[in-house]
Amino acid sequence: MAARFLEDYLSLNPWRKQIILSNYYDRVDHFGRLPKRYTPNYFSIEDIVLQDVRVSCKFEVSVPKLGMLDQSADDQDLKQGSKVELPFWMVPTLHAKKVITFEIPRHYKVNYRQILQADSIVVDLHKWGPYFYDLGHHVANLDLKDSIDIKKSLFQTLLNRLRHIMDMSQHSTHHETVHLIANLDELERKLFAVGQLSYRSYKEWVRRESSKINTAALVASHRKRKFAEVTV
Amino acid sequence: MFAQKGVELIQELERAKDFLPPFNEDGVRQVLEEMRALFEENQRDASSAVAGESEYITSVHIRHCALERNKRCLMAYLYNRLERIKEHRWHFGSVLPADIKANICEPEAQFFIKYNKSLAAYMKSIGEGSYSLDLTQNLKPPKNLYIQVKCITEFGEFETEDGDIVVLKKNSLHLLPRVQCELLIAQGILEHVS
Fold first, then answer.
1. pLDDT digits (tens, 9 = 90+) for A63-83
2. Is the CATH code 1.20.58.2050 the one for domain A110-232?
3. DSSP symbols for B97-156
4. How far is B26 from chain A, CA to nearest CA, in Å?
5. B184 chain-A contacts, CB cut-off 8 A
6. Does the predicted TM-score (pTM) go above 0.80?
């Protein structure tokens, strides 16, 4: 089911995603909100932060008065043909208007894709970019020559690694977790956390503790913080 | 680089995942300042483009991009804070502790009051007549009417609906009706012992 979901997700344009996700995940959550969907939505904190990544672009036209974008040159204006490291959020608009030629970040290029094809599980995706899948998705949506290949590669990588993640999340104790998830990027870490939570809930149900009322999560962390402040 | 301050606001929220940091009025004001400066420059360039010089159009596009980015950062900042305030209602009840209240700005406090009112009105409207359904109770399926609780914080005297006064001293055990103590357990005053 996860694989089908991913296939739909990666093959559609961004604005079509909402329709697909509502078919898979209609349940309203505990507080009466729609669950925080795994999709780059406008308000998503993660999506905003990850788009700050710098990518290298070459300007095709000269841009007056915006010389400050290029830190190395001291011009008032931006010369045509200058290579600049722009934050990623500028790229979709400028690419659509043909102001820049965008160079794909190196982790999504052919050689890296071949490495992923050879063996996805061993790769340290956290080092390749903590937001490998999300950024790859944004890059692939820019209508480049390689777009379809990038999407296929992302999809296949996640598919290969998914079993490994599921396995780890269902069978790991609390202490080993840190070095197990060191290789995973943020999306995979979320999946891992969800897996662990479901395993813990199951164990709780088996021990008949699922009807035990607990202190509300925010209240508990609030107390801990107050206690820490007072003692410090 | 454009929109640095906006991203800083968002990073503040990302760092504080399970509590509400104080409302960063300064940050918000700086972002609005930057947006105003960008907009004025754009206006100047756009009017000169209309007048005939068309070379400024790309700068207008780039500044517009930055404006949209700033707008997105601000909106996401405000929206995520409101979502957390809504969560606070379900965890803390309708009265927030003083130190959390200090982190909320005035319009957010108004939002919280209105949200409480909406929630209360909705809960009242569910049954017929004077019966109202408390949605914040029974979040897990109840197994029995009375539960064994242990007091972990000193609370003093607590009056149940039947009129019995229970003295909640630290580490004292009581057998109380589930509906009465659910709120106290959620707030961390009692602990459910099975």
1. 877 777 777 766 777 778 888
2. yes
3. -HHHHTTS-HHHHHHHHHHHHHHHHHHHHHSSTT----TTS--S----SEEEEEE-S--E
4. 20
5. none
6. yes
